[in-house]
Amino acid sequence: MNPIEEILYMARRFVAGEDRSINFVASMEDFATEHLLDTDAFEFLTEGISLYRPWAGAPYWSERDMVQLMKEFIEEFGPPGIE
Asked: Do 1 and 71 form a contact (C-beta atoms < 8 A)?
């Protein structure tokens, strides 16, 4: 799997509710930093991933905020017709 396919797989897992833990999102951040730095995909994800704290309230991102970001990411970077 190439790095974009891998991060899309992770995004789909998050949207599906398979893992929405802070640890999983931290692993997404680590992966993106290691494999996607200086790409549009990294820029798309970086703010939301770094602000994900579902229990903390504003200005941090909730689980719902992250689901929306991941859906938008899948739509923007995923193959056409696959969600």
From this structure: no
SS3 14: helix
Average pLDDT over residues 50-65: 93
Read off the pLDDT of residues 26-37 as tens digits, 9 standing for 90 and up. 999 999 999 999
Kindly report each contact of residues 40-49 with a partner whose C-beta sits within 8 Å and lies 24 or more positions away, as own/partner.
40/77, 41/4, 41/7, 41/73, 41/77, 44/72, 44/73, 44/76, 44/77, 45/7, 45/69, 45/73, 49/25
